[in-house]
Specification:
Layout: E1 2-10, E2 13-23, H1 28-38, E3 47-52, E4 61-63, E5 76-77, E6 93-98, E7 104-115, E8 127-132, H2 142-156, H3 158-171, H4 174-198
Parallel strand pairs: 4-5
Antiparallel strand pairs: 1-2, 1-7, 2-8, 3-4, 3-6, 6-7
Amino acid sequence: MAILKFRVYWEEEDAIYRDIMVKHTQHFSDFHQIILKAFEFDQKHEATFFRSNEKWQRGREISKEVYQKEYPVAPLLMDETTIGSEIMDTNQHFIYLYDFNKSWTFLVELIQVIKNADADMSLEYPVISRVEGVGPMQYGTKGLLGEKFADIEEKYDLSEADEGFGEEGEDSDSNESDEDDDSSEDDNGGFFDDSSEAF
């Protein structure tokens, strides 16, 4: 038995990737599930792998199921196909496509073959061995940003700030008003800077 180590890149940004280790005897259905887990996606949609080459051309499919579409060649099924059976060379490539409507595409490359004697058999394979970059949000960031913004709005009571600022501006001289503006901008600037780093 051997452990196969793959690097799975998000197609739109190759600095975002996950290293995944699987047994060569495991099936593509196991690989499919661990990729989704690695990128924090759900498992509700269609999915398929394509055999590929160094130019990332799509070959025969290894599919979750036979879908209602035309196939040049009948697909293999993930549940029936072991990963080792599809390794043709030492840097084998696959393309993984998830959710046909959204077309989430990941480029999969074999980067290492670990012999059984050198493998850590205490691990439960498949396993995510490395995470680089913040992965894409499957359903966008609107919900998360909304929650964060609601927290800030409540903390600083932004709904009342507009009225209070107008009255304070009339009673205060222009210098104090300018200072208030500056501090307000700093607070907001810091918040959005933090959120951009988090995402």
